[in-house]
Structures are given as structure tokens and as C-alpha cells.
Amino acid sequence: MDQQQKAKTSTDVTFENKNFPTQNTVSTQTVTDQAVSSFQMVEDYLWEMFGDEDEFVVLTLADILHQIRFVQAAQIKNGLIVQLGIEEGDRIRLVEKECTREECMDIFREYYNSSYVRDVEKYQPVAFYV
Known about the structure:
Elements: H1 3-6, E1 9-10, E2 15-16, E3 25-28, E4 34-35, H2 39-50, E5 56-60, E6 68-76, E7 79-88, E8 91-99, H3 101-114, E9 124-125, E10 128-129
Antiparallel strand pairs: 1-10, 2-8, 3-4, 3-5, 5-6, 6-7, 7-8, 8-9
């Protein structure tokens, strides 16, 4: 049995719900907490990510209504993964799903415009090595 087969994973992992920005921000591999004044800025970063397999995009909103603290995306071997940071009291749990570029863009657009993401029940808890 190799090392990876022995490694255990758990979806029962949460993160501290830290103080988040007082304005909408985007972060990438090279940009940290860049203020965002329009969805066009977010879309530009997403297009950069689609062209660079090492890139990621995190959109954090200052004011949320639906317990989704942030949305983040990155490329994976056969597509894209979108993760949501869901508030659970003073903690955040990550859930994720694979999607197409179009779906990814739609998820970010909806989140930017409303702090809402449809079909959250279709996202799965992220498994972490423990």
C-alpha cells in the first residue's frame, strides 16, 4: 500500500471565520484583496484563470445575505472546480463541485450580484488529508 492509500481524509474540517474586507475583493495567485467595483473586473480575472492552469480566483463580498462568505475557483485536471465558503456560526466549511467555464462564470456573476449561489445542495464537502 503506498503512502497516498494510507492517508486518511475527512470532510469534517472547518476554518476560522476571520474578519473579512469591508468592500468586495478578488484575490488571485498574484493579487491579494484587490477592491472590485464591477463584475467586469471579476470576469477579467476569471478569463486569466481559464488560460493559466496554476491560477485561481477568490471573490469575497463585504455584505452577504446567504451564509456564503466567498466563492473560489481553480482549474483541475479535467475542468474547473468551484468552492464555496459556507458560514457555520463562527466557522467556515468548504464545499465544491466541478463545472464548465460557463457555469463558473454564472456562479461568480450570481454571487457578485446577489451574494447567492443556486443549488448549494449539489456541492460536496471538501475532503482534506488529516
